[in-house]
Amino acid sequence: MSKTREFLTFSAPIPVDGRHRAEELRRQQATQAKAEQVYLNTLSVSFVNYYLICMGFETDLNKSDSWNVIQQTLMDVADLCLPNLGLLECRPVLEDAQFVYVPPEVQSNRIGYVAVQISKSFREATLLGFVKQVQTDLFPINQLQPLDDFLDYLEELSQLQLAEIVDDSLTWNQDLVNLKQWLENIFETGWQEIEPLLGTQGVNPALSLRSEAGAFISRGKLIDLGKVLREQAVVLVVSLPPNNEQEMDIIVEVHPTNEQHYLPPNLHLIVLDSEGASVMEAQTRNSNKNIQLEFSCELGECFSVKLVLGDISITENFAIY
Question: How far apart, in Å, are the Cα atoms of 139 and each of 40, 136, 264?
Answer without folding.
Answer: 18, 6, 55
